[in-house]
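Next up, a specimen:

>
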Amino acid sequence: KLQVPKLRTLDVFSGCGGLSEGFHQAGVSETLWAIEMWEPAAQAFRLNNPGTTVFTEDCNVLLKLVMAGEKTNSLGQKLPQKGDVEMLCGGPPCQGFSGMNRFNSRTYSKFKNSLVVSFLSYCDYYRPRFFLLENVRNFVSFKRSMVLKLTLRCLVRMGYQCTFGVLQAGQYGVAQTRRRAIVLAAAPGEKLPMFPEPLHVFAPRACQLSVVVDDKKFVSNITR
């Protein structure tokens, strides 16, 4: 059997590592670096991934260090350098996009949402082979889809191939109703992955996966 090298991955806004774990179980990546400011979540990531360097600092501060030519942070942890990162994944804080948040127009939420731009800055600097952004379903419609369109425009201008869609996590084994917005990108010369076929039957009312942007309906390749 052909052994395909695993992608060297940086997980930004990693939490306790759920997104990375999915990639690990799929056998496609090895998360060598993770960034998570909340110490309890970062510690959980360390316990489950002892080979990963987990940073508990502001992602903007870390990127500035790397861009300034620094090799380590203040704790002596080695920073990934340009050319090291083959896969960039992450779920920027989503409180500002969530329909559950009654205060999503306040300055704090605007700041949270700006972390999407920080995540795109990581992509611009490292230029990984593959990129994945995960967020709540409202990410695709927030502010008349402006955040989604900005994200796609930035990736296209970097030269990436892009696709986006809404997936139901329950169709892939998660024991809950959980629709998530996914943006996938692949560098020039790489094959842009399609979304995986559902593995489980799930309530039809929870599987409205098409989205409307600028009066156009977009349907993912898995929508029946």
